[in-house]
Amino acid sequence: MTLLSGPPHVITVGAGLLRESLAAQAVTTTPVDWRPPLPGTEGALARVLADPRLPAANERAVARLISARPVLSAVRRASEVLELGGMTFLHAGPPITWERASGPLRGALIGAMLLEGYAHDEEDAERRLASGEVRLEPCHHHGTVGPMAGVVSPSMWMFEVRDAEHGGVAYCSLNEGLGKVLRYGAYGPEVLERLGWMDRVLGPVLSAAIELAGPIDLRGMIAQALQMGDELHNRNRAATSLLLRELAPAVVDASPRDAAEVLRFVGGNDHFFLNAGMAAGKVATDAARGVPGSSLVVAMARNGTDFGVQVSGLGDRWFTGPAGVPDGLYLGAYGPADANPDIGDSTITETSGLGGFAMAAAPAIVRFVGGEVADAVAATRSMYEITLAEHPAFQIPGLGFRGTPVGIDVTLVARTGLLPVVNTGIAGRLAGTGQVGAGLVRPPVEAFTAALLALAESAKDPL
Amino acid sequence: MTLTDVVLVRPGVYHDSVALMRVSRSMRELPGMEVALVAMATELNLALARDLGFELPAAGPGDLLVALRGRDLEGAAEELDRRLAPLSGARAREAGGGGEQPPRTTRSAARQPADLVLVSVPGEHAFAEALDAVLAGLDVMVFSDGVPVHQEVLLKRLADERGVLVMGPDCGTAVVAGVGLGFANVLRPGPVGVVAASGTGAQQVTSLLDLAGVGTGHVLGVGGRDLSAEVGGRSTLRALRMLDDDPATELIVLVSKPPDPSVAGAVREAVAGLGTPVVTAFAGERDLTAAAEEALRALGRPVPAWPRWPAGPPAAGTHGSRPEGRDEPRPAGRNGSRAEGERGGRLLGVYAGGTLCTEARLIAGRGEFTDYGDDAYTRGRAHPMIDPTLRLEALSRAEPGDVVLLDVVLGHGADPDPAAALAPALARCPATAVVALVGTEGDPQGLHRQAEALARAGATVFASNAQAARYAKDAR
């Protein structure tokens, strides 16, 4: 079949008149709903698209992302596996200082100071943090991701996730539950008490249980959970149940005395799986890093002040814009005035083709997007416009088992002006408040524009 | 008025937390409402309510907890029920909705099967869409103008690697398997295939062939710069091979400006290597009408007298290409009395088609010729084949004694009734008007209807641009 062998099916992009004239000739057309790219990106787009490395680089980067096989291999203390010496804490998002840190991040850091015994009370903790004697580093710089404030201190127990395909490893802390919890910036007595129990009981028991149960295939578990109505960011109910089912016998074997308490804690927190899923996303996106010329987004993360992205072909550089306030629904009497700007590394789920990108799989939570199942389907469908692939394992039954949109391409974001759809929890603005709601947020366009301009600077000349 | 608390527990009523948060929010919007918590009675929510100072009865996670605080809560419970009721109703209508969304890029559209991409976005954005097509292995026609030449070179180099054809940029005309793309005449199917670095040039040749009863299967545009040294004729060479491979094509016509000397050799070599005969129409070497006539002879078909309106004397063997318009009627002024005294005015070429404009200028040898289809005139406005404004202004500037020569191009994509605007302007115009009308009997505008309307307005109308130019040259 060559072009000349019969009337062509024509994709039309541009003037409607030309499409109408084809329609008048009874020619089948697929019209593109084209709009001009983000303002100020025309020149950079042309340079990046003309980079002869781009198509193969993106193909390679996204192939590595979707072929990753994350397995939950261990639960270990942060001090064992991460370099946190000399009073170092990790936090979510791009680099930030205490001065610019938002309420919930400050609250979580204060909590971590108290937890680690680096300070004897709140004032002492604040003083030491403000003095600069504590090093603050992004989780992402340590192969780690942290939900919300994402604060990791040396004593915390971490999920360890390995990529059985490419050999990477990533870490994420254990989930504390909802409401007043450290990751949302709460640090009251009940928060520290719970963290103490996690330190003494939950961590050791899970660690022993996973040693007994052996590595757990997270890729398969995520694939199943999607088909059970999770999108793996704001809804992890199915995935948590699956993980619990896998772990329960080993937990009992490992510690008959604490088993009931541990299983009750895990079973009572629908988001328990989230942290393991985030580490799975991190290890997969890390596999796609460092491909020269690639415009694939390998991290989206927020520190409560800035929203940052990293791109495969641009090393560890962050491109940031101001974090937005999520549009969502609020717990109890809280309202938008109580909300902190967007925070957390959990956008690694969207970066790896889950969360907001998989909304169509999770009709139970679609009201976050504004009410209707149709909106969730539309949210997922629109993400196919800015992604390089459809995930081979993560499928959406309601879309005819189409793979989730995965692999955000900076050039496609600039061309379409469509920003990633992000599902998220909402932290209270004031340190110590905790969670106030959950909803949707759009990343700042500046982060993507800046990344595109940097790609243009590093682009190879085609001719 | 003091605030009152209302606390309700509805055992065994379950709604998901998000739905209930929406109900909470809408309850808070009621006048006088200070606090509204509608949630499943989980530990977390019970604690939230207690923190807000509510007195709570015993309740568990399977119960619905309602805690309201405000003034005048008389009707609050009913309001609550009104808001909860839809949550229990069948939501089936929502399921599976969300219909298909149109693709936002060519890359996205190319996920579905397609054969060809037609790009007509503004030139500075065309590269991205055309590149998507090439990378998806699809042939592409770039109608857009203003695409930088280095982007054209890159597109065509990548297209060569992938075995696809890039028509354009600035390709205004193509016909693929009888389908007209961009500005294209309705051509009868037939044995001719055209490779064209000139859109209106191809339209002139194929329209004349059509009037002579010979059909054209394909017109593959390549863009005006294809045969330049920079681009190297990549698309021309590919299009020639495609037509050579097409079993239905018996004769190839190559319409272009003369190739850059560095490319001419490759083109000659390619032409010599084809199994299909090739007629070349290089602007400046000979006119398009002559090329159409050679194509007819190559096919063994008679060359007709090309139509003109009002009909001239049917001089036997009239060819548009004959020198000096020997047996063509001498034009007269609009009214005989004026014409004689006002001889010696200007010859104004008011063109929409670039190649037609060049051809007419070369034939006339003098005069002020303007190609209103040039990039300089189309930035930010539609092509003069669609928007007559600039040419109407030019006509209004003509003076008695002038001769105005203009082209009117019919077909898909062009003005649906060009005579509607041009005929009144020509009727008002004090100059002698000569029109080259490029079109076929199948064109939606109606060739004869247009010709007659223009002729009634006082213009002398030719199907051959070369004949029109010769006539105009002699008309002063």
Automatic annotation (TrEMBL), chain A:
Gene3D superfamilies: conserved protein of unknown function from Enterococcus faecalis V583, Enterococcus faecalis V583 domain, v583 domain like. Coiled coil: none annotated. Pfam families: AllG. This is DUF1116 domain-containing protein. It comes from Nonomuraea muscovyensis.
TrEMBL record, chain B:
Residues 304-313 have a biased composition (Pro residues). Residues 88-111, 303-342 are annotated as: Disordered. One of its GO terms (cellular component) is succinate-CoA ligase complex (ADP-forming). Residues 321-342 have a biased composition (Basic and acidic residues). Residues 350-473 form the ATP-citrate synthase/succinyl-CoA ligase C-terminal domain. It comes from the Bacteria. GO terms for molecular function: succinate-CoA ligase (ADP-forming) activity; succinate-CoA ligase (GDP-forming) activity. InterPro entries: NAD(P)-bd_dom_sf (IPR036291), SUCC_ACL_C (IPR005811), Succinyl-CoA_synth-like (IPR016102). GO terms for biological process: tricarboxylic acid cycle. This is FdrA protein. It comes from Nonomuraea muscovyensis.
